[in-house]
Design goal:
single chain; mainly alpha; about 0% strand
Length: about 375
């Protein structure tokens, strides 16, 4: 439904506490679990590329869970940054991302150094670079397969932080989304490496759609945000169909393409329903805990699952090994959340916020 755009949309909106959209916690977990099933169903740790010939016909689509992450991120990051200063936004993101990430680099790096690897033993310089989360920009190999998405998120956060310095308003958001979309096309046309590095073309359609859906959620469904949702959906489909997706190789051109279009469209449809408030009644408190497991599960599942599958599938068989490894990954994710994220996130965020105010009163003291 199209509603008139708010007349006061250009006024900066003060930061306010809003009810938590717990359905997003559920969706984040579902996206992560889909990625986990994709990796566990297709890992070479089974000793064969076809360990689950029937099940993999479904789990193969879990690879698109990453796309759902990006749509959710576009929605949530704009929501969390609105009304905050760039420093406050940066503090919240650093405190959110780095504790579990550092734990994963240290633990998984230690496993790899002693020979418990998924593909290669990292060098000292690779380990140090990975601790910064900037290894992709430094052209250094990711320690872990799943880290590549973090670079996409980091670039998006930088763009949002710059935007926060200007100040969020409804019309500025529309201009930002329009400029991003047009520059994407220009960067592809002229093959501009710098533009493509900044605009993250792989994830941009999903970030754009997610941000537009937050505008729908906050201000109502006027035409411009819906146009950006539609543009993000269209660009996403063009990209994914141009990748020669595995579904096409498995099911043939017509059925495979239809399935891929259906999966991507379902992701967008679910987020449209979130923006429209359809799932506002999904407000169970335990979903917050489920959402908290998402990030550590994503960071640790591939390496740990690879090792456990390699050790267990021969004595237990593949159908018993799979649920055992899934349970182990969830337990590990909960442990990282409780032992690393809970004690460190708040302290790190407070320390970063204090650092932002380190110059308070400095001019007076100097005078």
């Amino acid at each position: 439904m199209l509603l008139p755009a708010p007349e006061v949309a250009d006024l900066p909106v003060v930061h306010a506490v809003r009810p938590r959209l717990r359905v997003l916690d559920l969706l984040r977990f579902c996206a992560a679990f889909a990625v986990v099933l994709f990796h566990y169903g297709h890992t070479r740790a089974w000793g064969t590329p076809n360990a689950f010939p029937t099940l993999s016909a479904v789990t193969m689509f879990g690879v698109y869970g990453v796309r759902m992450f990006f749509v959710i991120s576009g929605f949530v990051i704009l929501m969390s940054a609105w009304g905050r200063t760039p420093g406050e936004f940066a503090s919240s993101r650093i405190a959110r991302l780095y504790p579990a990430y550092w734990a994963s680099v240290i633990i998984l790096g230690a496993l790899a150094v002693v020979g418990l690897t998924t593909d290669h033993r990292p060098t000292l310089s690779e380990l140090i670079a990975n601790l910064t989360m900037l290894q992709h920009g430094l052209r250094i190999r990711d320690l872990e397969l799943v880290y590549w998405t973090l670079w996409q998120e980091l670039i998006f956060y930088v763009l949002i932080a710059v935007f926060a310095a200007i100040g969020f308003t409804y019309r500025r958001c529309l201009a930002f989304l329009g400029g991003w979309l047009v520059l994407l096309a220009i960067a592809e046309r002229v093959d501009a490496d710098l533009l493509q590095a900044v605009l993250v073309p792989f994830s941009a359609p999903y970030f754009i759609a997610g941000m537009a859906l937050y505008l729908v959620h906050r201000f109502g469904g006027s035409l411009f945000p819906w146009l950006f949702v539609g543009a993000g959906w269209a660009v996403a489909l063009v990209q994914v169909l141009g990748e020669n997706p595995p579904a096409v190789q498995r099911f043939g051109q017509n059925l495979g393409s239809a399935l891929v279009v259906g999966v991507i469209s379902l992701i967008f449809l679910v987020m449209v329903l979130v923006a429209l408030g359809t799932f506002d009644g999904v407000d169970w408190r335990w979903l917050t805990v489920l959402g908290a497991l998402t990030y550590p599960l994503y960071l640790f599942h591939h390496h740990v699952g690879y090792l456990l599958i390699g050790w267990l599938h021969a004595p237990l068989g593949r159908w018993l090994t799979l649920p055992v490894v899934l349970a182990a990954a969830l337990v590990l994710a909960y442990g990282v959340h409780r032992l690393v994220e809970v004690p460190l996130q708040g302290r790190l965020r407070s320390a970063l916020n204090r650092s932002l105010r380190a110059d308070d009163g400095y001019s007076d003291r100097a005078g």
